[in-house]
Amino acid sequence: MNVLNESLDEGATLVRIRDLHFRRGSKAIFRGLNIDIPRGRVTTILGPSGTGKTTLLKMIGGQLKSERGSIVVDGLEVGKLRRRELYALRKRLGMLFQSGALLTDLTVFENVAYPLREHTDLPENLIRQLVLMRLHAVGLRGARDLQPAELSGGMARRAALARALVFDPMMIMYDEPFTGQDPISMGVLLELIKTVNSALGLTSLIVSHDLEESLSISDFVVVISDGKVVEAGSPSELRASASAWVHQFLNGLPDGPVPFQLPAPDYRDDLLDAPAGSPRGGSTR
Amino acid sequence: MNSRTVEVLVGLFVLLFLAAMFVLAMRVSNLTSLSGGANYTLVAKFENIGGLKPRAPVSASGVRIGQVESIEYDAETYQANVTLSIDENYAEFPLDTSASIYTAGLLGEQYIGLDPGAEEDYLVDGDELTYTQSALVLERLIGQVLFSRSGGD
Amino acid sequence: MTDFLQRLGAGFISAFERLGRASLFLFQMLMSLGSLVGRFGLLVQQLHASGVMTLSIILVSGLFVGMVLALQGYNTLVSFGAEESLGVVVSLTLVRELGPVVTGLLFAGRAGSAMTAEIGLMKATEQLSGLEMMAVDPVKRVFAPRFLAGVLSLPALAAMFSAVGVYGGYLVGVEVLGVDAGAYWSQMQAAVSFTDDVCNGLIKALVFGFVVSWIAIFEGVDCVPTSEGVSAATTRTVVYSSLAVLGLDFVLTAVMF
């Protein structure tokens, strides 16, 4: 069974996405996406809301299947994996959801220990040490007995990060990690993502529309719009880009290639188009 | 709620279920009166069984000693064959014992009453009761009364 | 007119599609039941959530239903001079019908809706996705234990309902209304068959438990992951479960009795 497109050790690229097509209902989300995610670096996928960035993460994790195209993670074609192989791959990936997605009936400690308890037979003291190490790495060792409901948003994400790290994954995916955070939590998160990436030699894939934050820690940026890649490169390359679209996006300009006014009939005609029966009559009809 | 409390409560739940089943089995249903012991069968033929049903009681001197096992129509003798299942503890019925169909109370269910005879030999498994009395059918009774009254005038 | 027909047709097709999805889901859950063998902790947890927590409402309801049956039964029987048969009326009504059905309805309202809300909320807060990304199969860890707990709890609760109801009937019939205690119990014992009445009632409750748990869990999994979606799903659980219990009751009674 040939699930390998290329050799197992990809070298520089961890995830290779080729000609990805996906639609939800009648709406096309991806129309021929091509992305190479480099190993060991922090990559950010930028784009306006609704462009399917979370969908992309779910497809890399195998939760959604593409209509056409391929996603190859560390040499394994995700769309063709059997259930058991998919689960084995998922153990090597970590995912941080927008809300943390901690299990609400367990304490922070139990949440981080959950993957260990489910997938291994490690003795209790070993589990305890592993969990405490991860909690210490994110600074939450003191919060170990709290319930998720008692945590702030930022703390919940840190706890979820500790849980995602518990198996020393090869890649962590962050789904909109910076949304709605106060400056201090933001700073903490940025620091954690950077440190975790370099200290553990991980690959980090961030999906976000928070510009400054993402650009400040990324090594590689991919901008998606309208189901395709518009621009890809390092943050400095992006800032220097000639594309008007990228320029509008990076500078937050209200008008440009993405217009301020949505497509609508002619303004004057619209105003003068009084209802039938009034003095002016149905003029343009 | 820690897991120990949860487990204790679930254990209590299971205990309550068993207690409920015990009550339903012993106090509510007829489980205790069903003889766990062995039975032997006798056959009785009736002209008319009235409202007799399977599992109806079989009594001697008013004491329940068994139940009706099955009722079939015999197309050759044009009678009803009733199979009685009787507790083996009561195996000393003389050969000329008679079986009659009585009604419990005025509107109650019908049952079979056995009246022992005077013979010395006893009925054994599979024997047939020679003397039977069918159920009273109300319409026939009324008809008889009317007939005898008009005849007696 | 054609518009109406078209919508009617579309409605039916989507209903069938939903039913198909629900059946596939049920099949998946049944296949995963085997994984529960070594993991009693999960099952015990869920037995507590659906069985133990529903206990109080079942016992109180059972008591009151039994008492009402005795009152109403007495009123009718006394005009035939048959009040000694009160025990028969109370026990047969409870064991054959009211025990399984009322327990089914109460269970759907209390435990079923709780299951749907919990699972719907897990879906809305991405906990189910989170479990999948941790390579944990939510069908095995979340759904199968709840399903099995529901299937086991309902007959247990129905038995308790009937038992308490019979005693409630005793309280009212014998203590308050003056029916002879001996007659109450002895006539009941003669009329109620363990295999035909009590066991059939429990089988009914088992079937109800199966259907109610299936509906509750499926509605939770299939809901729109927003707060309105979860509340709509919870309402659907209670409505469909109740209808299913009553409909199945008719079918099972026709078959069994």
How is this structure best described in words?
The complex is a heterotrimer of chains A (285), B (153) and C (257). Chain A has 285 residues and is of the alpha/beta class. Chain A has helices at 53-60, 83-91, 108-119, 124-138, 153-165, 183-200, 211-217, 235-239, 244-251, 267-272; strands spanning 13-24, 27-38, 42-46, 68-73, 76-77, 93-96, 171-175, 203-208, 220-225, 228-233. In chain A, 35% of the residues lie in helices and 22% in strands. In chain A, strand 1 and strand 2 (27-38) form a beta hairpin. The radius of gyration of chain A is 23 Å and the shape is globular. Chain B has helices spanning 3-28, 138-152, and strands at residues 39-46, 57-60, 63-74, 79-87, 98-103, 110-115, 128-129, 131-133. Helices cover 27% and strands 33% of the residues of chain B. Chain C is mainly alpha-helical and 257 residues long. Helix content of chain C is 86%, strand content 0%. Chain C is elongated. The N and C termini of chain C lie far apart (45 Å). The model of chain C has no long low-confidence stretch (mean pLDDT 92). Classes of the chains: A alpha/beta (285), B alpha/beta (153), C mainly alpha (257). The B-C interface holds B 3, 6-7, 9-10, 12-14, 16-17, 19-21, 23-25, 27-34, 55, 57, 107 and C 41, 44-45, 47-48, 51-52, 55, 80, 82, 91, 95, 156, 159-160, 162-164, 166, 185, 188-194, 197-198.
The secondary-structure class of chain A comes to: alpha/beta
Assembly state: heterotrimer
Largest interface between protein chains, with number of residues from each side: B-C, 27 and 29 residues
User: In percent, how helical is the residue content of chain B?
Assistant: 25-40%
Rg from alpha-carbon coordinates of chain A: 23 Å
| Low-pLDDT segments of chain A | 1-10, 280-285
Number of strands of chain B: 8
In percent terms, what proportion of residues of chain B is strand? 25-35%
> Helix count of chain A?
10
Q: Number of DSSP helices of chain B?
A: 2
Distance between the termini of chain B: 90 Å
Q: Cα-atom Rg of chain B, whole angstroms? A: 23 Å
Give the H and E element order of chain B.
HEEEEEEEEH
Q: Can you count the beta strands of chain A?
A: 10
State mean pLDDT of chain B (0 to 100 scale): 84
The main pleated sheet of chain B reads as: 8 strands, mixed
Q: How would a crystallographer describe the biggest sheet of chain A?
A: 6 strands, mixed
Shape of chain A: globular
Binned strand content of chain A: 15-25%
Instruction: Write down the secondary-structure element order of chain A.
Output: EEEHEEHEHHHEHEHEEHHH
Instruction: State the end-to-end distance of chain A.
Output: 65 Å
